[in-house]
Amino acid sequence: SIILSSFIFRYLLKFGRVSNYVGYNALEDHFPTMTLRPNDECDDSYCRKRQIEHQLKHIEPVQVVHQPVPDVIHENNDWGIELVADSSPTNDNDEDSSHSQLIDVVSGSVDQVKYAYTKNREKKLVHQFDSDETSAASLTRDDDISIEDLMLKMKGLNEKT
C-alpha cells in the first residue's frame, strides 16, 4: 500500500515518473523501471482479444522534462569531499559486455536490467565430470549374475512380505 500511495502522490503532484514495473535489486540498491509487454504467444482467446484492444488504443506515455540543476560549488572544501555520480558502473567484466549486448537486442526499456551472477564456466563442468575417477566403469558393477537369478531373488523378497 505504501508503494501504491507513493505512485498516487507522484501522479497528483506531477513529481517523478510512475512505472509499470515495481522491482528492487538488493545487490545494487536500485529500483529498475521497465515497460511490461503482453505475451504474444498467449493461448487464451480473452487474452488475445484484450491485446488487440490495447494495440488499438495505444496510449502515449507522459514525458517528464527534467531541468538541469546547476552544480553547487562551495568556496572552501577543507576535507576534500567530492560527489560521484551514481550511474557509474561498479565493475567491468567481459561477461557484462556480452550481457549488455543481449539486453540491447531485446526491445523495450530494459537497459537497467543486469545479471547479478555469472554462469559457471562450461570448461570447469566438463573437467569435473571427465576425470578418471568418475568413469563409467567405476560407476557400474559386474557380478556375473544373470537376469534370471536376479528375478528369483526379487520373487523371494516379494514372498517374504
Could you explain how this protein is built, in words?
- The chain has 161 residues and is mainly alpha-helical.
- It has one domain.
- The chain is built from six helices and no strands.
- The longest helix has 14 residues.
- It is elongated.
- The chain starts with a helix and ends with a helix.
- The relative contact order is 0.08.
The amount of helix comes to 25-40%
Mean pLDDT across all amino acids: 69
- What coarse outline follows from CA principal-axis ratios? elongated
Distance linking N and C termini? 60 Å
Succession of helices and strands: HHHHHH
Assign the structural class, choosing from mainly alpha, mainly beta, alpha/beta, alpha+beta, or little secondary structure: mainly alpha
Q: What's the tally of helices? A: 6
Radius of gyration of CA atoms, rounded to a whole number? 30 Å
E-strand count: 0
Q: Provide the number of structural domains.
A: 1
Pick out the low-confidence regions: 101-108, 121-130
The biggest beta sheet reads: none
Give the DSSP E fraction (strand runs of 2 or more residues).
Answer: under 5%
